[in-house]
């Protein structure tokens, strides 16, 4: 509790030192420890806090103790976003330089927000005026989620080969070559003899049909026996 009070007093002093009369206001804050961030020193070295409203953009690095500060911020309503790699922080709305006399000059100002810096919870994609409660300044940020950008490399899955229809066809052919002969051995001998008789009859019928076709249409046989290579070579 005492450390928190000292930090607020110190940041208030920095705010007074950074604020330049007539040129802008100082906005300060700190990323504090939480369940997802046990130690603020674990933040990446390139962690940044960004304050923008389309007209002005300010960027401040996050120090080793989690603190950050913007000096000379112009009057307006800003979106505060944190860029800390794998750590996600909720965005905030920051109204700077909103006093009772200038409240009407700020587009989308929230009723009752009076003071140099007013901080509100907000949501991306929502209405700018749809805030969710006012927060204290100096700003206190907490990590609310973490991101994992690591994509594990694909591993070999033998069962995944069964999704390929060519592999399934090959397996069926191999099984037919080795399994079908075993089935034939289990068939009744009389059934095997019947199958062989039917096969022989079909072969004889095919031979008789071919002989009959040659006798009725001799030109077809001549065309089938025609020597194309010899004809191209000029042989008679």
What does this structure look like?
The structure is a single chain. This protein has 236 residues and is of the alpha+beta class. It is built from five helices and eleven strands. It has a six-stranded antiparallel β-sheet, with no helix packed on it. Strands 4-1-10 form a three-stranded mixed β-sheet, covered by helices on one side. A two-stranded antiparallel ribbon has the order 6-11. A hairpin with a 4-residue loop joins β2 and β3 (57-61). The longest helix is centred in the C-terminal third of the chain and has 28 residues, at 189-216. It is elongated and about 110 Å long. Mean pLDDT is 76; it is low at 1-22 and 99-114.
- What does the overall shape look like? elongated
Structural class: alpha+beta
- The helix/strand order is HEEEEEEEEEEEHHHH
Task: Please summarize the sheet with the most strands.
Answer: 6 strands, antiparallel
The fraction of residues in strands falls at 15-25%
Please list the strands of the largest sheet in the order they lie side by side: 3-2-5-7-8-9
Q: Number of helix segments?
A: 5
| Ends distance | 115 Å
Count of β-strands = 11
Q: Residue ranges: pLDDT <50 for 5 or more in a row?
A: 1-22, 99-114
Helix content estimate? 25-40%
Radius of gyration: 43 Å
